[in-house]
Fold this protein.
Amino acid sequence: MTHRIYYFSGTGNSLWAARKIQESLLDAELIPITKEMPAELTAQTSENLQMPESIGLVFPVYMFKPPRIVLEFIQKMPKSNYIYAVATCGNSPGKTLSVVKNSLLENGNTLSAGYIVSLVSNFIVLPKTKSDSYVEKAFKKAESKTQEIAMNVQKKTSHFDKEMPGVIVKPVSWLLFNPAYKRIPVLGKFFSVNDKCNHCGICRDVCPVQNIKMTAAKPVFLHECEMCFSCISWCPQKAINWTPLTKYRKRYKCKGISKNDIVADRYYKNK
Ligand SMILES: Cc1cc2nc3c(=O)[nH]c(=O)nc-3n(C[C@H](O)[C@H](O)[C@H](O)COP(=O)(O)O)c2cc1C
Ligand code: SF4
Ligand code: SF4
């Protein structure tokens, strides 16, 4: 394969974007980022493997930053020539691309291009349900953006989307997001499962980091949560909540991505 796209996706937006870029590139392989990546999927310079022309990183924005698992993965990445990042988000990317750029630099790599793809927020804690027409428009716009990204990747263009101004990002990060981001595994303890649970095991199957264990009583949340909201979105019984705040919120479903797509996406983890 000429191009390689590593991606992380909780509820499917980033998987959708990664697939769209893959479709436009024609000759690209998609690899989900998991906690323990098999060496053959991260190595590029080994004798038997051809170095891809481009490496893409596609992931959601969490509190103005990339997910922790993506930052950990970046530190394990081998040296590569053309790396681009695609951050999917609601509408507030913060300085996510700059965080990726700096993280790559720490590892001796350079970010050649960075893109923001605004879709729809899956952070259902905030009461911001979007209308069908808003969702339709957002995905249409995002689709053209993925085509533009693929074209730039083919040409190895340098590009950096405009990020949010520091006067907004800095105070919000300092007061709210940075302290919360550091405590993401702790925040994962605020998930609860109510009596509507029918033990179907879907929450376990859609979790990208094996943070949910089925027990005879109820699913149990462990301590590695990434706060991706996949479990809460896909529970067919609406039995999972994160604090009482999500009780009456509509669960987010990414247009064009099914539960089976998400479960299949966890293939490397479940193997
Ligand atoms: C814990 C959490 C924090 C988030 N923080 C932001 C944010 O700071 N800005 C934003 O625009 N969207 C934010 N979002 C929304 C996601 O970035 C967005 O819905 C993304 O496309 C989800 O991708 P996925 O479906 O691949 O997981 C957040 C979502 C979660 C679950
Ligand atoms: S997905 Fe929902 S119903 Fe199924 S086991 Fe998990 S909590 Fe229970
Ligand atoms: S426990 Fe739920 S929110 Fe946490 S990583 Fe797993 S699926 Fe995502």
